[in-house]
C-alpha cells in the first residue's frame, strides 16, 4: 500500500520538535503545546481520542488555567509582531546605510584615524607654544620685580637719612652704595 | 440447469478500504473483508486489517521526518443472534512475519455498500467474488515480534494484536493481518458488526523508534489538529447483513 504523506510548515515542524524533545511531564507538554482545555475537548471529540494520555493532558491544561500560570498562546505571541517589525526596520536601516554610505567601512576608519592624529599633533604644537610664552612672561616679570625691589630700597634709605639728620643724629649716614647687600 | 443467484452481503457504512477515496485515507489502520457462504446458514469472512503509517514531511530541504503509526490493534467480531464456529487462533508472530494460506470459494457473493460516509461520497460499487475461484491470503508485516491473543465470546470473538508483554522496543506495524471467522445463524437475518481500533497512535522517527510517551503523541496530534490536519483515532465500525 502506498505511503500517505502530510506536509507541514516550518512553525508546525518546530512545535513538533519542541514537544518531541520536551520532558515527559504533562504540565510542561500542555504549556509548550499551548493546550487550552476548551479547545482540547473539541479535539478529543473530533479525533475520537479518549485515551488516558489525552485525559491527563486535558487535566494538565485545566490545572494550568486554574493556577493562572497559563498564558494563552494569543497573549504570548502579542509581542511577536512588534519584535518582527523591529527586526525588519533594523534590517532596512542597515541596508539603506550600506547603499548610501559614501565610503567603505575600512576607508572611513582610516579617515577618522588620520583626522584624529592631525588634531593631536596640532594640539601638541599649541601646547608647546603656550608653555614657551608663559616661560618668557615669567622671566620678564621676575626682572621687573627685581627693579621694583631696588627702587624701594633707595627710598627707604633716603627717608631714614633725613630722619636721622633732623634729630641731630649720630653722624653722617653712609651712602647707600657703601653698604653690603647682606646688611640690608 | 438452474442458475444459482449470487448472495449479497450489505456493508454499512461503506468504510472498507476498497471503497475509500484516496483523499480519505488519512488513517493509520483500515479494514477490508471478503465473505463466502459455506452453506445456507454459515458465512465465512476473511478480515484484512491493514496497518499503514503516515509520513509527516517538512518540505524538501530538511529531511527529518516523523511517522505516525500504531503498534497494534483490537478487533471485535460480533454476530446478532448467531454463533461463532471457528476463527483464527492466538499465535506469536516473529519479526517480519509472513503467512500465506489458500482456499477455494464455496459460493458466489456480492459485496454491496449501503449508506454513506458522512458528507463524502464514496465509490460504492458492488464487488463480486466468484464461486470456485482460488483465493490467496497473505499476512505480511514489517516490524518486531507481535502476539495475537483471542477471546471467544460464543456470539463473537475478539482479538488483540499487540507487542509481547514487557517488550521495551516499540515500532509501528506496516503491513496487513488476515483473520478469518466462521459463524452460523439459525434464523434470518444473518447479520453482525465488526470493529477495528488501533491500540495507539504514536509518533516515530525515520528509523521507526517511538518518540516519547503517549502524552507527547497526543500533544503532537493536537498541534497538527490546530493546523487542520486531523489524524483520527476513531474505531472503524461496519455492520454486515445478508440481503
Largest β sheet strand count, sense and barrel closure of chain B: 9 strands, mixed
* Total separate domains of chain B: 1
Q: Total number of helical segments of chain A? A: 7
What coarse outline of chain A follows from CA principal-axis ratios? Answer: elongated
Weakly predicted, low-confidence segments of chain B: none
Element-by-element helix/strand order of chain A: EHHHHHHH
Q: Which whole number gives the mean pLDDT of chain B?
A: 87
Strand order of the largest sheet of chain B: 8-13-14-6-16-18-1-10-11
Distance between the termini of chain B: 24 Å
Number of strands of chain A: 1
Q: In CATH's first tier, which class of chain B applies?
A: Mainly Beta
- Rounded to an integer in angstroms, the radius of gyration calculated over CA atoms of chain B is 19 Å
Chart the SSEs and their pairings.
The complex is a heterodimer of chains A (184) and B (243).
Chain A: E1 4-7, H1 10-21, H2 26-33, H3 37-47, H4 52-66, H5 73-76, H6 80-100, H7 105-166
Chain B: E1 7-12, E2 29-37, E3 42-51, E4 54-57, E5 66-69, E6 73-79, E7 82-87, E8 91-93, E9 98-104, E10 109-113, E11 127-129, E12 134-142, E13 146-152, E14 156-162, E15 174-185, E16 191-198, E17 202-204, H1 214-225, E18 236-242
Parallel strand pairs in B: 1-10
Antiparallel strand pairs in B: 1-18, 2-3, 3-15, 4-5, 5-17, 6-14, 6-16, 7-15, 8-13, 9-12, 10-11, 12-15, 13-14, 16-18
Amino acid at each position: 500500500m502506498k505511503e500517505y504523506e502530510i506536509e507541514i510548515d516550518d512553525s508546525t515542524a518546530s512545535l513538533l520538535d519542541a514537544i518531541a524533545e520536551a520532558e515527559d511531564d504533562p504540565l510542561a507538554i500542555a504549556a509548550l503545546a499551548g493546550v487550552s482545555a476548551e479547545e482540547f475537548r473539541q479535539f478529543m471529540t473530533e479525533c475520537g481520542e479518549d485515551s488516558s494520555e489525552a485525559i491527563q493532558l486535558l487535566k494538565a491544561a485545566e490545572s494550568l488555567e486554574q493556577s493562572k500560570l497559563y498564558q494563552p498562546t494569543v497573549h504570548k505571541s502579542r509581542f511577536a509582531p512588534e519584535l518582527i517589525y523591529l527586526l525588519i526596520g533594523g534590517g532596512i536601516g542597515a541596508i539603506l546605510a550600506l547603499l548610501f554610505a559614501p565610503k567603505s567601512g575600512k576607508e572611513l576608519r582610516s579617515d577618522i584615524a588620520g583626522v584624529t592624529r592631525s588634531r593631536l599633533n596640532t594640539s601638541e604644537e599649541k601646547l608647546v607654544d603656550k608653555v614657551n610664552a608663559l616661560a618668557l612672561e615669567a622671566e620678564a616679570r621676575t626682572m621687573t620685580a627685581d627693579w621694583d625691589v631696588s627702587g624701594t630700597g633707595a627710598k627707604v634709605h633716603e627717608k631714614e637719612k633725613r630722619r636721622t639728620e633732623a634729630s641731630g643724629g649720630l653722624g653722617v649716614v653712609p651712602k647707600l652704595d657703601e653698604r653690603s647687600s647682606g646688611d640690608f | 440447469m438452474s442458475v444459482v443467484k449470487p448472495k449479497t452481503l450489505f456493508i454499512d457504512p461503506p468504510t472498507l478500504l476498497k471503497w475509500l477515496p484516496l483523499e480519505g485515507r488519512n488513517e493509520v489502520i483500515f479494514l477490508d473483508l471478503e465473505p463466502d457462504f459455506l452453506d445456507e446458514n454459515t458465512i465465512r469472512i476473511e478480515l484484512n486489517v491493514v496497518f499503514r503509517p503516515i509520513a509527516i514531511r517538512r518540505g524538501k530541504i530538511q529531511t527529518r521526518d516523523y511517522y505516525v503509526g500504531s503498534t497494534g490493534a483490537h478487533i471485535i467480531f460480533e454476530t446478532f443472534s448467531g454463533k461463532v464456529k471457528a476463527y483464527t487462533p492466538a499465535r506469536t508472530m516473529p519479526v517480519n512475519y509472513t503467512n500465506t494460506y489458500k482456499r477455494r470459494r464455496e459460493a458466489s457473493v456480492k459485496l454491496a455498500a449501503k449508506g454513506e460516509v458522512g458528507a463524502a461520497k464514496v465509490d460504492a460499487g458492488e464487488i463480486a467474488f466468484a464461486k470456485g475461484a482460488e483465493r490467496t491470503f497473505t499476512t505480511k508485516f514489517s516490524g518486531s515480534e507481535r502476539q495475537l491473543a483471542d477471546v471467544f465470546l460464543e456470539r463473537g470473538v475478539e482479538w488483540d494484536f499487540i507487542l509481547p508483554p514487557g517488550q521495551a522496543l516499540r515500532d509501528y506495524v506496516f503491513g496487513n493481518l488476515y483473520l478469518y471467522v466462521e459463524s452460523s445463524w439459525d434464523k434470518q437475518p444473518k447479520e453482525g458488526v465488526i470493529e477495528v481500533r488501533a491500540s495507539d497512535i504514536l509518533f516515530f522517527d525515520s528509523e521507526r523508534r517511538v518518540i516519547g510517551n503517549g502524552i507527547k503523541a497526543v500533544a503532537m496530534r493536537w498541534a497538527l489538529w490546530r493546523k487542520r490536519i486531523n489524524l483520527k483515532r476513531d474505531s472503524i465500525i461496519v455492520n454486515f447483513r445478508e440481503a
